[in-house]
Amino acid sequence: MKTDNKALSLHSAIIDKVKGSGMNVDLDEALEICGAGKYQVFHCALMVAILGAAMLEMIGCSFILPAAACDLDLSNSIKGIITSIPNIGVIITAPFWGRAADTFGRKPVLLFTSLVSGIICLTAAFMPGLLSFALCKLLGSLFLSCPSSLGFAYTGEMIPKRRRDLALMICNAFLMFVASLCPIIAWGVLSYDWWNSPLRLRQWRVLTVMYVAPLILAALWLTQAQESPKFLMMKGKHQDALDVLKHIYASNSGCSKDNFCVRSLKISEEDSVKSSSDGNCEVGNKIMANSVFALLRPPHVNWLALTGFLMFGLFSLLNGLFLFTPDTVNKVMTYPSDKSVTICMLMNQSGNSTSSDNCVDMISYRTFSITVVTSLINGILVMLVSLSPLTKKTSLIGMFVLVGVACLVSAITTNRIIAGVSMSALQLTALGIGPLTAYSVELFPTSLRATAVGAVLMFGRIGSVVGANVSGIFLAGACTAIFYIFSALLFRE
What we know:
Blueprint: H1 2-20, E1 24-25, H2 27-34, H3 38-59, H4 61-67, H5 69-72, H6 76-104, H7 106-124, H8 130-141, H9 150-156, H10 161-190, H11 203-221, H12 229-234, H13 238-253, E2 264-265, H14 269-279, H15 281-295, H16 300-318, H17 325-333, H18 343-350, H19 365-387, H20 392-412, H21 416-424, H22 433-443, H23 446-474, H24 479-492
Parallel strand pairs: 1-2
Helix pairs in contact: 2-13, 3-9, 3-10, 3-11, 4-11, 6-7, 6-8, 6-23, 7-8, 7-11, 10-11, 10-19, 14-15, 15-23, 16-22, 16-23, 17-19, 17-21, 19-21, 20-21, 20-22, 20-24, 22-23
C-alpha cells in the first residue's frame, strides 16, 4: 500500500509539474504520465516472444542435428560447425543491424530482420542436402542479430523509468522458460512418425519448421506495435512521438487520446548530445573511435579483459558443450549393453562414424524425460535466483561451483541417469550472464559503457563459436579432456 501511495504521489507531482510548465515536458516525464499498464504488458509480451523465438532458432540445432544425423551424414565435428552458424552470423552483422535500428527505427528493422530470417530458416527445412541446409542457416543467421538482442532496448524505451529495471528483469526471467520449451517441442514432434503420415516428411524437417515458426508469427504480431518514442525524438519527429504516447495513454487508461495532458515534448540535454552525434557521421565515428581507444588503455583494458574472459567462458559452455547434451545423453540412454560405462567411454567407441550400420537418429523416451524435467527445473531455478536479493558476486560464485561440479560428475559417473542430469545441469550457466552483464555496466564510466558492454557480449558470441566447434571436434576423440578442461576453467573463474 505504501508503494502504491508513493507511486500515486509521484504521478500526481509529475502532472502538477506538467500543468505548471505549459504542458511541455521531456520524454521520461511523459512516459510517467502514460503510466505502466496494458500497453506495456502487451509490448513486453511481444518482445519476449521475439527474443524467445530467436533463442529457439539458435538452440534448436541441439535436437535437430541428432535427428538428422543419418539423413545428412553428420559427424560430431560437422555438428559443431552447424551449431555455431547462428552465432557466426550474429557476430558478422551485429554492428550493422545496430546502426540500422538507430537510423531507420526499431520497429521496421526488427520486423524486416525477423521476417526475412524466419523465411530463410524455414526454407532450410526443405533443403535436400547438408550444404544447402547449412547455407540457408547461415543466410538466415545474418538477419538474426537484431531479433536476438534489440528487443531489450525496444522494451526499455517503452517503460517508465522507475519501472524499467523491474520490467527488463521479469522479461529476462520469462526468457529462461523458453529454453525449457526446446526439448518439449522436440519431444512432441520427434515422437510422431511423420514419414508414414500424409505429409511424408522426415521428423527433423518438421522440427526445423516448428522451431522457426514462432519467429515468423512474432514478426507478424510486431505489426501491432508502436515505434519507439525515444527513436522518434532523436530524429526530431516530436509530433509522431507524442502520437505514440497518446496511444499508450489511451491503452492504459481507457480514456480518449485527447485527454492526454501533454501538448508538446522537449528533448533532454543528454538526448540532444546523442542526436547531434547521430546526425553527424563524422562526429559519431570520432566518438566511437575514441571509445574504442579508451577501452584499450589502463585501467579499462584490465576490466575488459576480465569480463570478456568470463563471458567467453560462460557462452563457450552454454552455447558450446551444453548444446551437445541431447545427442550425448541419447547415446548413453540407447547404449544396448548393461555394462557400466561413462559418457566418454561411449563417445570414444562411437567416434565420428555415421555409417548406416551404427547410425542412430532416434531420440529415446528417457532422453526426453531427463532433458525436459531438468530444463524446467533449471529454468525455474534461474528465474528465482534472478529475482532474488542475492548479490551478483554470490550468484556468480555459486554458479561457477555448481556447474563445475556438474561438469566433473558428467565425465566420471557410470550411472546413466546421474550422467544425464549432470550434463543437463550445464544449462545453469545462464545464471551468470545477468550478473556479469551488470558488472560490465558498473565497471565502466558512462561515456564508455555502451561500447564496453557490446564488446563483452561480443566476447561471449565468439565463445559460443569456439565452444561449439571445440566440443564437436574433441568429444569423440578427447572427451574426458574436454570435460576436465571445462571443469578447470569453471573452478578457475
